[in-house]
Amino acid sequence: MSTTRRFRPAGVWAMPGICRRPSRPPTDSGQVTQVPTDRTVAPGDEVALVAAAEGTPQPTVSWSVSPDGGQTWTKIADATKNTYAFTARATQDGYRYRAEFTNAAGTTRTTPVTLTVETSGGGPTPTTPPTPPAPSGTKTVTGTDGQKLTVTPVNDLATENQTLKVTGSGYDERKGVYVALCVDNGPGELPTPCVGGVDMTGGSHSSA
């Protein structure tokens, strides 16, 4: 006699427990603990700007400079330490600097500081005044009887030691040419003050 046995598959049991993901260390972009300050120096002076920050992980530092009052910023090559030191130049007057601290959480920046570079006179670095334009131009006018008078130059005249060339034709050579010089005050305005004048008799034998 044969006996047939049937077996019921055993159930799959899971032991109760807690599944946890690997923990990650907390991060923050950093908190500035030391800030640089504005500096006023003379050309050739050594400048040292110092900044520090704390964060998780510890942030790295870089320095940036702005030559246009903070409108644009450029990272300074090899400036990757908490202290950025350099020799001041006159052309750096008004430059702004800031430190940037960066880690996996982001970037934190210090408030920009300003470098003032003064000359030996104690004031701001002077700017070169613009060069005034050279006197130029020629003007010719015609009188009621056909006389012609030409003056060179007529534009941008110097206020002192200015030389003018005056030529004419159609005049009574016994009387000569007499010139009055006036300040041109613009269209519709009376030219004044004036120097010189006209000798209608020719008795002075000289021009104004």
Taking pLDDT < 50 over at least 5 consecutive residues as the criterion, the unreliable ranges are none
Oligomer: single chain
What is the beta-strand fraction? 25-35%
Quick check: average pLDDT?
A: 80
Q: Work out the number of β strands.
A: 15
| N/C terminus separation | 158 Å
**SSE pattern, N- to C-terminal:** EEEEEEEEEEEEEEE
Report on the architecture of this protein.
- The protein is mainly β and about 210 residues long.
- It is about 0% helix and about 35% strand.
- The protein has no helices and 15 strands.
- It has strands spanning about 30-35, 40, 45-50, 50-55, 60-65, 75, 85, 95-105, 105-110, 115, 140, 150, 165-170, 180, 195.
- Strands 2, 5, 6, 8, 9 and 10 form a six-stranded mixed β-sheet that branches.
- It is rod-shaped.
- The mean pLDDT is about 80.
